[in-house]
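Researcher: Let's run the pair from yesterday's discussion. Sequence first, then tokens, for each.
Model: Starting with the first of the pair.
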Amino acid sequence: MITYIKGRLIEKTPTKIIVECNGIGYDINISLNTYENIPDEENIKIFTYLQRKEDSDILFGFSSQSERSIFQQLISVSGIGPSTARTILSSISPSDIQDAVWSEDIDRIKSIKGIGLKTAQRLIIELKDKVELFDKKDIDLSGENFDIKKEALLALSVLGFSKSKAENVVSKVYFENKDIELQELIKKSLNKL
């Protein structure tokens, strides 16, 4: 599999880029999120996912490993293919997808073109335990303090709570008040566990 391509950016549109590497031009499908995060510099590194079909091979590109990871998690959900996953990533950011899954925000996921109620429910159920916190350096978190969430999750896991249940509760408490202090986040999460 092709993990990443490092080369010269030849063309950049909201749906695809062409990267030349060692004399070969790679046509790579991208999401709007990747389009916004790829610099207009000549030399770039793009993380990739190769979809093999009977009649073609299609490359999908991502500005970060975290975005590629959420893409792979999305296509693992029954009924979501690479094109739908790309549409999801074009509609909302990877961190918003993570938050919607953690907080079981079906309406947020349903608002994406091509995603109905059943697919939104299936996506939340199947990804609930799979979605990990993104690496802060990989993704623009719009100033949100995700270190507090990580610290709270670590504290709750040390106290013996299951990771999936703790993630759900911490996420809900955090998004009710994003200015919350670490101790308060842990206390409120404990009250809900």
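Model: Moving on to the second of the pair.
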Amino acid sequence: MRERIQQAMKDAMKSGNKRRVSTLRLVTAAIKDRDIAGRVDGSGQSTGRERVEDGEVLALLQKMIKQRRESATIYQQNGRAELADQELAEIAIIEEFLPKQMDVDETRAACQEILKELGPCGLKDMGRVMGALKERYTGQMDFGKASQIVKDELK
């Protein structure tokens, strides 16, 4: 994943695509920040890890996309179409590095599969179900939608 991002940045620099270069630099900086933060635990002790795993990078990319979607919505509501377009362009660039996203039906099927496996007793098991979904499908589904599906199933 990191190598793909670095190669994409080099290609964007060669082609002179400034929007792509700046977005990929933001992604690279966010990954480096996460690597640095992952080197120590909550009490300041070394974890022995130099780099975070690809699953954490995928989660980071999803978070970046979510932030940009929220910003684009706010910009559109306030009549700032050029800034909204900028955010949407960044989303398209970041999404290139995520696995194929599940649609609503695939998300529902994955949620039902996890529910069958875990056999939750009610909403109190929601965290356990969502944890299992995040473990298996990081970067592939919208967990906000998945959360709503799981809540509906557990009621």
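Researcher: Give me one sentence on the second I can quote.
Model: The chain has a mean pLDDT of 87.
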